[in-house]
C-alpha cells in the first residue's frame, strides 16, 4: 500500500474526492496517511479529521521563511514515510530543492488544460477568469507530475470541459471540478500508486 500525503490550502473538495475514492475502492493501491495544510483555517483540515486522517499545519507566516516552510513539510513526509505527495488545491510553489527529492512522486491537479492558463500566477478562480476572458470554448483539468517548473512537469491525465454561454468564473470552476478534477485526480493517484507498488516489487 502506497502511503499518500495530501497537501492543501483551502476548501479541500479535491481532498474529499480522494477520501471518497479511497472509501469506494477507486483508490485501492494507496492510503491517505497525512494531510498537511499551508493555512491553519483551511476547511480541508476538518474534512481530514472527519475521515480520521492525521493532519498537520505548515504556516509560512509563523515559520518565517519559505525554506523553513519546506523543511517542516519535508520533515513530516519523512516521519510518515510518505511515498506519494498529492497537491490538491495547494497554493504554494515548491522549490527545486524540494521537488528534486521526489521525482515522479508529486502529483498536482490544475484547473485548465495545460499548457493553457498555467504557471506562476494562475491558480484557483484566476485560471477560470483567464479562460473566460480569452474566450476559449473548451477548458478542463490536468493532473501532472511536479518538477521545478510551475505546472511544467509531465502530464499524467487530462479531461476537457465545455464552456457555456454566460459562464461566470465560479460556475465554470464548479463544472471543471465536478466533471474533471474530482474524477481524474483519484484515477491518477490510483494509477501512480499502483506503479509505485509494482516498481517496489521489481
Ligand atoms: C481547485 O480547482 C484546484 O485545481 C485549484 O484550486 C482549487 C482548489 O479547490 N488549484 C490550483 O489552481 C493550483 N494551481 P479545493 O481546495 O476545493 O480542492
What does this structure look like?
- With 202 residues, this protein is α/β, with parallel strands linked by helices.
- It contains 7 helices and 7 strands; from the N terminus they run E-H-E-H-E-H-H-E-H-E-H-E-E-H.
- Strand 2 (30-37), helix 2 (43-50) and strand 3 (54-57) form a beta-alpha-beta unit.
- Helix 1 crosses helix 7 and helix 6 (125-134) packs across helix 7 (169-201).
- The longest helix has 33 residues, at 169-201.
- It starts with a strand and ends with a helix.
- The model has no long low-confidence stretch (mean pLDDT 98).
- The structure holds glycinamide ribonucleotide.
- Residues 10-14, 44, 88-89, 109-111, 123-124, 127, 177, 181 line the site of glycinamide ribonucleotide.
Provide the descriptors you would attach to this structure in a database record.
alpha/beta, 7-stranded mixed β-sheet, 7 helices, globular, binds glycinamide ribonucleotide
SSE blueprint and pairings:
Layout: E1 2-8, H1 13-24, E2 30-37, H2 43-50, E3 54-57, H3 60-63, H4 66-79, E4 84-87, H5 96-99, E5 106-110, H6 125-134, E6 138-145, E7 155-162, H7 169-201
Parallel strand pairs: 1-2, 1-4, 2-3, 4-5
Antiparallel strand pairs: 5-6, 6-7
Helix pairs in contact: 1-7, 6-7
The chain binds glycinamide ribonucleotide (GAR).
Glycinamide ribonucleotide binds at residues 10-14, 44, 88-89, 109-111, 123-124, 127, 177, 181.
Quick recap:
By secondary structure, this protein is an alpha/beta fold.
